[in-house]
Amino acid sequence: MTYQIANPPSVATDLRSDVLGHVLSSRGSEARIGLIQDEFDARERATIGKFVGITSAEALLIGMISEVSAVELNSAGMGEYRAIAKVDLVGQVVKEPNRLPQFRRGVRSYPAIGDAVTIISREDLRLIYSPSGLNAIDLGELHQDRTIRATVDVEAMLTKHFAVLGSTGVGKSSGLAVILSELIRVRPDLRVLLLDVHNEYGRSFAREANIIGSHNLKLPFWILNFEEFTDIIYAGKPAVAEELEILVELIPAAKGMYQGYKSGSERPALSRRPARNGGFTADTPAPYMMQDLVGLIDERMGKLENRTTRMVHHRLMQRIDGIRNDPRYAFMFENANVGGDTLAAVLNQLFNLDSKERGLTILKLASLPGEVTDAIVCVTTRLAFEFGIWSDGGIPILMVCEEAHRFASGDHSVGFAPARRALARVAKEGRKYGVYLGLVTQRPAELDPTIISQCSTLFFMRMANYEDQSILRSAVSDAAQNLLTFVPSLGTSEVVGIGEGMPLPARFSFRRLPRDMLPVSDPGSDAARDTRTMSRSELVRHAVERWRRATTNTSRLAPDDVGESERPPEAATNAIERGLRSLVGDREGVATRDADSYRTSSR
Ligand SMILES: Nc1ncnc2c1ncn2[C@@H]1O[C@H](COP(=O)(O)OP(=O)(O)OP(=O)(O)O)[C@@H](O)[C@H]1O
Ligand SMILES: [Mg+2]
Predict the structure, then answer these.
(1) DSSP-assigned states of every residue in 146-167
(2) What pLDDT is recorded for position 187?
(3) Which atom of ligand 1 is nearest to the CA of 170?
């Protein structure tokens, strides 16, 4: 590769000691720089990702080195240059008389051949990364210069959604904890609902957040729309078409009956009349009583001659009864027969709307039955969006979803379609109604591409998988592509931030969290007991006890939370006990793995 220029600028004429080289060619927002062969060590610093300044006639142009290649010394036309660097121009620092210097994204003037190139000074770097918006949050320190803080513009990051992406164990949850703790500090008005899939964040925000789990969640079944309701009663499996037909017809009728009691025209016990649906549909979030629905199905069944159709009705009744008597679903069906219009109370619990403080609410999903997680993610996202619409965006809400690829999979045959639709709707239109999205995923390639493309601030953490990396490439602009080459080699808690919220794409490290703030999965109320001090048999007993308690929902009896969502059959507990015994031999290794991985990678 040769770069022919008529009169290469002479190194000897440029006596400034910080000059790294000169512009040899320029095309669009790209420039090629000849790096000077010299004694001082500026050349050491001309590495990929570094920012350089090009002193042009009007401004200091800022570029990022995206490629460096050696050239044969003394090759034709190369003058005294030892190497070529390719630089992407990203912005400029304007220094006008009587005004403070300002950094602007994009370039308005272009470099001329021979312009001097320097490694950017600390002051200029600080200027570039100094917060521009009203609310900026400090997330950590810049890789290029650890004395400079990496700040993010809150308005830009929030209103156009953000995502934290990276393989497992690279520090996504810890990074999210840093982002959220800063967000609630500078925006106390913002209501944040964190869908905590692994019950990790309670510990990090024990003092600041409202924590909702199986012990206190109240989400009456009638708030669910038809798809969500059926997802729950069929536990995510395909529904039975004949049964669905019955429900579509009778749920509105049950709502009509409840409306009748409210208007006081009939007492509940006397209401067995042909039900009118009062204009309700199966989706209207209007209260009704489960006993009315079951009563209506029963009544219909009584009138039927055909045995097969009677059986369909009977099975449906059994299905509903099974679920409403399951103690794990008490948060949905407890008081179900009492009815009562508590939509405002539900919204208030989820988003703490009444208060101007305690903006963060953590919904501990792992303490609820695994089969309802999809429906809960769906209903809460939908409620946030609907509330945004009907309140004209009066109270801004941020929905934060961990493991987003599980709920909004790009493969439409996977997961619960209404949950994906609810998240996509917020991603596409939420901005207009003050409803924002923050997503965390370890498999960006599995996340619905339309959702990820709406997230304009992206935090990339280490990612080794090729498919995931190619998704990133399609999501970012050309200028930022080069930063992505670092992604496979980033250390734990290191991140490349790109997009609306960042003044410029930046590689930085999330602020170090103190040990007691680190998100750690908290499977039960007595997780605080240090298992490392227990004997092996004590540990096994302790684990089995917690496991069993999680399956019997004792949380309703005691106000503490129980974590695991899986429900191993009672008969399997002996096998569980045996399995655990064989596992504990490894436990010291497990207990210290996280801390070690951090230490190793931050070295
Ligand atoms: N900002 C940080 N401050 C202190 N320690 C950190 C930080 N980020 C990561 N770590 C260390 O790395 C470990 C893993 O981090 P974290 O749980 O946030 O990763 P993750 O990407 O969310 O993992 P997973 O995919 O399993 O959810 C932490 O337990 C902690 O030891
Ligand atoms: Mg995590």
Answers:
(1) TTSEEEEEHHHHHHT-EEEE--
(2) 93
(3) 21
Determine the Cα–Cα distance for residues 358 and 212; give it in Å rounded to an integer. 13
87 CA to centre of own chain: 33
Q: Please determine, for residue 14, whether its predicted confidence score (pLDDT) is greater than 70.
A: no
CA-CA-CA-CA dihedral for 98, 101, 105, 109, to nearest 10: 60
Is-contact 138 151, C-beta < 8 A?
yes
* Alpha carbon distance 498, 504 (integer Å): 7
The DSSP bridge pattern shows strands 102-105 and 81-94 to be antiparallel
The DSSP call for residue 528 is G
28, amino acid identity:
G
Condensed to tens digits (0 to 9), the pLDDT of residues 313-325 reads: 999 999 999 888 8
Would you kindly state where each structural domain of the chain is located, as residue ranges? Answer: 11-128, 150-218+342-516, 223-333, 523-602
- The helix (run of H) or strand (run of E) holding residue 549 is helix 536-552
The model's pTM is: 0.79
Instruction: Check: CB of residue 555 under 8 Å from CB of residue 214.
Output: yes
Residue of the CA atom closest to atom 9 of ligand 1: 171
Edge-to-edge strands of the sheet including 397-401? Answer: 149-153, 136-142, 506-510, 494-499, 457-460, 162-165, 435-441, 397-401, 191-196, 360-364, 210-212
Query: What's the chain's Rg over C-alpha atoms?
Result: 30
Q: Ligand 1 centroid to 490 CA: how many Å?
A: 13
Q: Are 209 and 377 in contact (CB under 8 A)?
A: no
Quick check: 555 and 211 in contact, CB under 8 A?
A: no
Return the SS3 of 361: strand
Ligand 1 nearest-atom number relative to CA 168? 25
Ligand 2 centroid–CA 115 distance in Å is 47
| Mean pLDDT within 217-245 | 88
Give the ligand with the smallest distance to the CA of 601: 1
Residue 167 CA, ligand 2 centroid: distance in Å: 9
Q: Are 121 and 144 in contact (CB under 8 A)?
A: no
**Measured CA distances, 589 to 172, 394, 400 (Å):** 22, 50, 32
Report residue 555's pLDDT band, with 50, 70 and 90 as the boundaries: very low
Cα(523) to ligand 2 centroid in Å equals 14
CB-defined site of ligand 1, < 6 Å: 166, 168-174, 442, 492-493, 510, 512-513, 518-519, 594-595, 597-598
Overall fold of domain 11-128: Elongation Factor Tu (Ef-tu); domain 3 (2.40.30)
User: Are both 11-128 and 150-218+342-516 of the same fold?
Assistant: no
Atom of ligand 1 nearest to the CA of 198: 27
Q: How far is CA 66 from the centre of its chain?
A: 29
For ligand 2, the distance from its centroid to the CA atom of residue 205, given in whole angstroms, is 15
- CATH number for region 150-218+342-516: 3.40.50.300
Q: How many CB atoms lie within 10 A of CB 502?
A: 23
Q: Measured between alpha carbons, how far is residue 426 from residues 232, 445, 518 in Å?
A: 23, 20, 29
d(CA 466, CA 120) in angstroms, rounded, equals 33
